[in-house]
Every structure is written in structure tokens, then in C-alpha cells.
Amino acid sequence: MSAVNPNHPWTPDSLAHELQRLREHPLGLHTAQWVAEDGGRVVGMAAALQFAGMYHPDRYHAELMVLPEAGRRGVGTRLAGVVEAHLRARGAREVLAGAYEDQPHALAFLARRGFSEAMRFFDNVLDVDSFDPAPWAAHEALPDGLRALSLAELEAEVGQDSARRAYHAAFVEARLDVPRTGAASEVTFGDFQTRLSHPLADPHGILLAVTAQGEVAALSELERAEDDSGRLNTGLTGTRRAWRRRGLALALKLRAIRLARQRGIREIWTGNATTNVPMLAINDRLGFRPRQAFVEMKWGGV
After folding, report:
1. Considering the domain boundaries, does residue 103 fall inside one?
2. How far is CA 102 from CA 107, 175, 272, 292, 293, in A?
3. DSSP structure string for 148-198
4. Where does the record place the N-acetyltransferase domain (predicted)?
5. Are 139 and 284 in the same domain?
6. E strand intervals along the chain
7. Are 171 and 187 in contact (CB under 8 A)?
8. What is the mean pLDDT of residues 23-44?
9. Burial of 84 (0-12, 13-18, 19+ CB in 10 A)
10. Rounded to an integer, what distance in angstroms lies between the CA atom of residue 249 and that of residue 36?
11. Position 250 in a domain
12. Average pLDDT for 153-160
């Protein structure tokens, strides 16, 4: 998986954590995976998964990856046949899959199987060394009545449970307006706790705008990257509806960039749907530059 998509690599620990999280989820999420072997070497993988964030019992996400040197030999076609038979037996009514826009052969592979484009997502990347903080100094200040704290700092002040519940409440509300190809489903506090136990989660990199009453009004999440100490990934950046249009997201992103500079980070990566105009505008102003878009494609519908 890491060789096929080096921009988003996995380690065994992070992959095991993610699969365990899916398999133990109270929704009873489905997970099925296959590998293609050639002489004892894995040359391809496929998966049929359900995710909690956009759950429907008849919606599945399909993944298929083949090493470039094993391409054009029918490996992908055979794996696709296995996945299709599996999903047909389960009565799937919607399947989401995708490929990058510079992989026309992969997009055509999906189109031949009845998939059509549903949405596009960019990886946006900031070269931290080239970022000049001077013109942005005034924008880092929060409105009166708000403080900027990391999750670790808030936990030290009010205790882990109270801090995480305040963070969870803001996360749940902010993510409802993030563009996606289906309705957002509930993120329970238990699932949120599991998310925070991920090997790459960093409570010092989760930046929050906190009211005097302890409510989290906005958040911007930084996560460590797999096997790359010079890179940080952005999780969710968002603001609760009552606090929007007051510069909170921009202020927290600026603090995140400052934190990255202090840590000697080379790049910050974030992902944005092409329809998320407000966040794309903020990232463009800050100097994030888009990479090739990931084209999410859909078969059927629920």
C-alpha cells in the first residue's frame, strides 16, 4: 500500500490500529481484505470496507492497489473480480472507490465497471521554510474571551475527560459541514476516544480555541506522519457555527504553522474537497499548493 501510494504510507502498527478500530466498532462495520501473491511476494491488495464517518449498511468502500512492476498482468482485474463477487453476495447498493487524476488507466478501470465521478479531493502542501509569518502576525490573535490551548494543555487544566468531551462536542459539530459524498454519521465519544489512541495522534498538536466557560469554539488538528519526521498532516480544521466568520480557523492554522516551525518541520499536508471553497481559500492565502486530485467515484447509490 505504501509503495503504490507513497504520499499516504502506512506502518504495520497504524494499519493494525485502524483495522482493529473498524472491527470493534459498535456499528458492526464490515472489513474484508485480500492480497495477490507472486512467488510468496505480495504484489497487490484489495479491500471492501465500511467506515463509521459516513455509514450506511449497504454502502461500502473498495480499495485496490497493484505494484507498478506487477501491472498489466491481470492482477487488478482478478482482485476486482473477487471484490465484486464479495459485495454482490452482501447485497451492496453503493460502492465508493477512486484514483488520482494522473492515473487515467485506473479511472478508466473503474468507469468500465460502472463507476462515475462523485467528488474530488486535493492534497494541499505547505513548504514551511518558505512561509513568512510576518504579514500574518495580527491574524494569529483570537477574539476577546477566547484562548488558544493545545488539547494537552486543556487536559492539564480541567482533566482528560472534561477536555476531551469539550473537544468532541466541537469536532462533531464542525465536521457536519465538511463536504463528502454521503451524509455524515455520528461519531460517538467512545469512537472519538479510540481515534485519539491512534499511534500518530498528538495532543500537543491539536490546537483549540477555548471560551472562558471551557467550550471549544474551533479546532485545528496536526498529526505525526508515517516514517517522516519532517512532515505533519492536518486532520480536521473547523469552527462551531456560532463562532464562524471571526477568523478562528485562520488563527489556529497560523499557530499550527508556528508550532511546525518550532519543531523543524519541512512540510504540512492537508486534504480538501474541491467544493470546500472557504477552507481552500484560507489554505491558498497561506501558501498551501495542491497536488494531484484524488477522484472519488461511485457505483449505485443509497
Report:
1. no
2. 9, 29, 18, 7, 8
3. EEEHHHHHHHH-HHHHHHHHHHHHHHHHTTS--SS------HHHHHHHHTS
4. 1-135, 169-302
5. yes
6. 31-38, 41-49, 59-66, 94-100, 116-127, 146-150, 206-211, 216-225, 228-239, 267-273, 289-290, 294-300
7. yes
8. 96
9. middle
10. 44
11. yes
12. 98
pLDDT beyond 80 at 69: yes
pLDDT of residue 199: 87
Mean predicted confidence (pLDDT) in 179-202: 92
In-domain check, residue 102: no
**pLDDT computed for residue 228 by the predictor:** 85
d(CA 225, CA 266) in angstroms, rounded, equals: 12
**HSE of 293, CA atoms in CB hemisphere, 13 A:** 14
- Give me the amino acid identity at 47: A
Same domain, 131 and 62: no
Give the amino acid at 44.
G
Last residue of a domain, one of 47, 72, 92: 92
Segment 244-286, tens digit of pLDDT: 999 999 999 999 999 999 999 999 999 999 999 888 999 999 9
- Listed in sequence order, the residues at least 6 apart from 118 whose beta carbon sits closer than 8 Å to its beta carbon are 96, 181, 296, 297, 298
The chain-wide mean pLDDT, for the chain, equals: 95
Pair (242, 186) in one structural domain = yes
DSSP state of 79: H
Please tell me the predicted confidence (pLDDT) of residue 100: 96
Range of the domain at 210: 124-294
Q: Write the single-letter amino acid at 14.
A: S
Q: Which residues contact 94 (CB under 8 A, 6 or more apart)?
A: 56, 58, 59, 60, 182, 298, 299, 300, 301, 302
> Which residues face 124 on adjacent strands?
270, 290
Domain CATH for 130: 3.40.630.30
- Determine the pLDDT at residue 107: 97
